[in-house]
Specification:
- The protein has 173 residues and is α+β, with helices and mostly antiparallel strands.
- It has a single domain, classed as NADH Oxidase (3-Layer(aba) Sandwich).
- It has 7 helices and 4 strands; from the N terminus they run ααβααβαβαβα.
- Strands 1-2-4-3 form a 4-stranded antiparallel beta sheet.
- The protein is globular.
- The model has no long low-confidence stretch (mean pLDDT 97).
Length: 173
């Protein structure tokens, strides 16, 4: 799929077809994520791939009852791992760069999923400690996003976006 076509076709999918996700496609997505840029190439993030139904149900509860999380065949849980870059970047690395690394990685996963004909949605509303407990993550790992993946069970229409004139400022605000 051509890149700008991927951008145009990406929509937040909150319903998934009862069809398993092929391991090959999942591995393609994870390889794409691995190629994402990161501060100092330290890759200060980790991903937990959740396929077990009871864990997906628990993630759904941790995500404030968003049932589509459990419906997807796979949920990727992205964590910022500040221990990976604190030694080089100190507090800024811990508080900002690790977060940026994890969000860039999750974005690569979303766009890769779209390119493969899959759907996803960025889930940021969840209780951090519950997410950590469900997947057994250490305390220093900060959950950033849940990304349910699967074949779309819906075709949402495009949402309105701000105009460039409202969004972009040239040379100053």
């Amino acid at each position: 799929m051509e890149f700008f076509s991927v951008l145009a076709q990406r929509h937040s999918i909150r319903a998934y077809a009862p069809r398993p996700l092929e391991e090959g496609k999942l591995l393609q997505i994870l390889e794409a994520v691995r190629s994402a840029p990161s501060a100092g190439n330290l890759q200060a993030y980790d991903i937990v791939v959740v396929t077990e139904p009871t864990k997906k149900e628990a993630l759904s509860r941790a995500a404030l009852g968003q049932e589509f999380v459990a419906q997807a065949p796979v949920v990727l849980v992205f964590f910022a791992n500040p221990e990976r870059n604190a030694w080089r970047y100190g507090r800024r690395g811990e508080e900002l760069y690790a977060l940026q690394d994890a969000t860039i990685a999750a974005t690569y996963a979303m766009l890769s999923a779209t390119a493969l004909g899959l759907g996803s949605v960025w889930v940021g509303a969840f209780r951090d400690e519950e997410v950590r407990q469900v997947v057994g993550a250490p305390l220093h790992a900060r959950p950033i996003a849940l990304l349910p993946l699967g074949y779309p069970g819906e075709r949402p229409s495009a949402t309105l976006r701000r105009s460039l004139e409202d969004l972009v400022h040239w040379n100053e605000w």
